[in-house]
Each structure stands twice: as C-alpha cells, then as structure tokens.
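fyi for ur records
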Amino acid sequence: MTQPLRLALVLHNHQPIGNFDGVFEQAYHDSYLPFLEVFERYEGLKIGLHTSGSLMEWLDARHPEYVDRLGQLVAAGKIEIVGGPFFEPILTMIPSRDRIGQITAYSDWLQRRIGAAVRGMWMPERVWEQSLTGDLVRAGIEYTVLDDFHFKNAGLGEEQLDGYYVTEDDGHVLKVLPGSEKLRYTIPFQEPHETIDYLRGVAERRPGTLVVFGDDGEKFGTWPGTREHVYDHGWLTRFFDALLAEREWLHIVTPAEAIDGVAPLGKVYIPEGSYREMTEWALPPARINQYEDARHELEHHGQWDLIKPFVRGGYWRNFKVKYPETNAMYARMQMVSRRLQKMTDEGARGELVDQARMELYRGQCNCSYWHGAFGGTYLPHLRNAVYRHLIAAGNLLDQYEGRSWQPDQQSWCEISQGDYNLDGRPEVRIENNRLLGLAAPAEGGQLYELDVKAICHNLTASLARRPEAYHRAVLRGPSNNGDGVASIHDRVVFKQEGLNERIGYDRWQRNSLVDHFFAPEVDAAAVAAGRAEELGDFLHAPYEARLRRNDGRVQVLLSREGSVLGRRVKLTKGLTLNAGEAALEIAYFLENVPADIALHLAPEFNFAGLPAGADDRYFSGGQGQRLGQLGHQLDLGGMTQLGLTDEWLGIGVTLAFDQPAAIWTYPVETVSQSEGGFELVHQSVAVVPHWIVIPDAEGRWSATMRLSIDTRMAESRMPQLAEAAAV
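which gave:
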C-alpha cells in the first residue's frame, strides 16, 4: 500500500466531581497507571489523551508523579493532550460565557502544569449542537472528536467517514473528527486481529485516510472484568504489538498530526445529538421500551440495517424534563452564573470572585445531570457535590459583598419572587445569612431547596421513585455472560437480591411541605410504599403566594382553596425566616374544616444527604433518646419533637411541634442502574407528621412547626480541616 492509513487513538479519562476518593484511587491503579506503564514501553506509538479537570486535579494532588510522567511524554511527542472544559460540563447546558471560560481556564492550566499546547478538545459525552462551534473557536480550539453517529445523522454513509470534516457557524470554522463506533465495540472487547482486519479494509478502500478511535479510558481496566482482560491476560500488549506489526501500512498518529497531514473530506453541518446510547437514554421510559422492541423485531426480520442510519433517539436537554430534580439543579446553577456575571459586569474582581467562578465551574460537572448505563443523577453523592460547589460559590459572592454566613458576622434576611426554576412560573426565594430556601407556589407550594450555607449542603436534594425502561430487566433477572468480557451496555447484574420487590413509584416530587390528606385509618406501610390514596387535591395544585417583609424577618404565605372528600377547604401555610437564624418557622392554618368528617393532614418532609445504615446517623426524641438509624421506618405517636442527626456530616435537624403529632418516617430508595449493575440507592429520609384535624367552632385549625438546623458539630471541625488541607 503506497499511502498508509492513519489511526488516531484518543482516550478520555474522567471521574466526576464528588466521586468517592476510593473510586478515584481504584481507577488510578486499575486503569490510568497500568495503561501508562504499558504504553511507555512502545516507542512507535502515540495517543491523544484527555483527562478531565476534576480527575487531573485529584491526580496532581495525590499522584503528582503520574502528572509529571504525562509532561515528559508530551515533551517527547508521544502524547497529545486533548483539552476541553475544565470540569466536564455538557456544553449545551451552560451559558456561552462559561463554555469559553471553562475551556480557556483548563487550556491555561495544562500549559502551566505539563507544557501542553492545547489544539483540540474532548466534547463531554459528545453532546453536540451546531451553535457550539463559535464558542469553541473563540476559546482557541481547532478540532473536536464526535462519534460517527453524529455524521450519519447528517446523512453521511459509512463509506464517507474515513477521514474528517470541517463545520462552520456564523463564520467560525472547526474541524470535526468522527470516532468509529465499530472500534468502540472491538476495543478492547474483541481480540486485536478484529480491529486490524477492520482497519485493513478501510486502508484498501481509501488509502491514506484517517480513522479515529475515541472512547473512555476506563474501558482499559476500570469497567467490570476489564482489569484482568486488558492487563492480566495481556490484551493491551497484544493490541499494541499488533499495531506495530502493521506499521508498513498503518501509522499511529496524534489527532493534531492527523489534521495537519490529511486534508478534510469536505464540509458538514451536524444535527444536535450525542452517541447513540445517550440519545436512547434521553427518551421517556415507555419510548425506550418501544424503541427496543421495534429494533429487535426489525433485527429478527433482517430489516434493521436498512433503517438504522435514519433512526435517532431523544434530545439531551430533555433529561431536565425526564428528571425534574436535574432541572432544579440546572436552574440553581444558572442562578449562580447570572449572579456572578452581574457582579463582574458591575466591576467585581479579586480572589473571592475568581474562587467563586471555579466553584461554579465545578458545579457544572455533567455526571449528575443525566442518567443512562451509569448511576448519574441517581447517585446522591454526585448531586450533593454539585450543590456543595454551587452553594460555596454563592457563599464566596456573599463574602465579597460583606455578607458571610459566619455567626459573628452581621445578620440579614431577604425574600424575592422570580422564575428561579425556569418553568415560566414564579417561585419564591427566602434567604438569610444561614439558609436559602426555594418554594414553588405553582407546584403545591412545595419547598424544593433548602441550603445550609455553613456546610454547603442542600437538605432537599432528593430524587423521586419513577419508572425506568430497565426495570423490565430487573423483573427478568440477571444475565450470565460466562467468561467473556461484555460491553457495559450489555450486562445485567444485580448488586442485591430481591430488587424486583423493591420497585415502587411516586406520584409527586420528593420535596418538603408536600400536602397530603389521607384516610384516618391509613397505615404506615401504604404511605411508605406510595400506595396511600390521596383524598385531597393539593399535591400539585397552584397556591397563591404573598410576600411579607419586616426588619430582620421575612415571610411567604402560600394559600389555596381546594377539595378534600368533595368539601371545599382552604389551606394556608407560612414560611418565616429571621435574620441570623438557621431555622424555619412553618405554620399550617386550615379554614372551612367540616365538623362531620375526619380530615387527616400529613405534610411530608424529605431530608437528603443523610444516608442510612450507620449508627452515627439516627433519629431522636424530645428527651434526646435514640429511636433508631435514619433508614428505619418509624410509626410514632404523641411527639412534640423529632431529631435527625448525622454525626459524620456534623448536622442535626430538629422538627418541633406546638401540638403533639403522630409521625411516620421511612427511607426513599430507588432501584437504579449503574456501571456495576442494578442497585438499591438511598435518596432521602421521609418524615411525615400527621394529625386528625379537629376544627374549632368556626371551622378552623392550626399547627406550628419549627425546623431548626444545628451545624456546630461540623463548624467545630472546620479549623482542623482547613489546616489539614493547607498541609
């Protein structure tokens, strides 16, 4: 062959913000380090390597010698560092200013730390929209890697994807490289000769062109079963040997060398999309099942390949519809970004502002904003981490304005109304120097966020139980793949027994101040399972909001006249916040209560980020007596106070009642999918005080609760933590 085929191998290594330190460490020893050790032995090989900023920061702190080795390989021309946005956000999810800021900030970091001159970037989750082109070019990017699926959606055939294209938007030109789906499924799951045979066919069809492999580096050791396959059984060594054995016609190049040495095939405009599996996951569950059934039927009749090039799944942005909790997180991120931009437009500068910007960028990490074969939004520690960084960004901006959460600082409180969750309807923000709450009058008057500023924790970051397409697989049971190494998309593994019996669905979001009216005889098991009949129509109905402001005190009154058992009843609930207090006063007031029927009012609270299953996380009564771990189901009577303590987090939450209440508690647990298999995940602790309403002579009834939050335990550790971090 007179013109050699060029092969560009691009690896993408990533661990999300908030992942457990042990997961980082395990991935380092199972994947990142052993790959580098094998690769370094081969003088004739080159790769493109993208390491997300969240992972790179961890590596630089825990294994700086690894980062030094990367720098040496960069200097030797064996590795081209592929850049990208610093903390791996989905670029279509964040404002243009943050796209450019994240990309340039990471390029600068890579240049300073390892001497890498960044020319191209990894597109996080390959989520693409054509309008991104201008921002990438303005950020100094020459090329990016997408999947060949993107190009097929633009109408190109398989035979037209041997090479790369240019695309354009508003006069900005970007080179786009199609990553081969075929190679994504042969590497490393098939023997090396399968890849060589495929590449030889491409070389014979189009000599001198380019083929790109771009995929997760975790496939080489971190994905289940791959550590033994890739290293212990020598797959990677055999693969590299096979590549070098074909050097007469197969040249291994970096992406930059490829675009410098090969002319583009032409111009293409690429529809929005991602890799094939992601577009499927973005569909509603019922549609995913319909799609899978139709595909299998067409495959059975030999017709799938005819229609496959024209089939597309869903739209990534609709994950914010599929999971309203991610929309709340996204909207909160936008609130912080807008505030930061407004302050900088007004001249805010300095270290605190720069730190706030980096905290915002960390809070844009994509992994908890969606869900597919990976845990994603179902993993509480990832959601908690996003909120932690977003709240920290807000704290830094408060500090810049002289409004710190510290108890010895000047106290303040404020209240406002606006479309904070971007649904076209107004929400209410109630805030002081200790807490920030967001309530949705149009959605049952529910409290959907409660930030504890001292520890940067959102107490309401829960997730509802909802149908998922893969629940069919849970009901079918696990698969047996024998001794082979399956793609992560094909494995059916149960992490716990009896998951089919734990599937349940909610009819409401797991927020707080969720207003239930149940039958008087309803039992705790029915409530915990979500099977209790709703006798009122208050759950999702709109409430009217009235805002009140006094010196050092703000209040929102949320009221609605609705129906309970066919009777018209008016419910008003008030949320009051005093300056400097880490407490919410919550008052319930019912009017027009019929005297001839028993109304059973049960306002639900959900407390998130307080995991179950440990003795240092427990309920307590009014006298401090322990009532069991936070994962326990309780059915209590005559309570004037209930405490929830998480000693590890350093927080205590107390609900106190002005009149005795019966209380149900239970864990909210989801059956969800992750790369390791199907698992039960604790999402929140539901606390449901409830009363049989006995009205006065005028048909009125009221109860007052005080939700107090004590973070002194966590605050006492902060000096030691700061000192340890400095060391």
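The chain is about 30% helix and 30% strand. thats all i got for now
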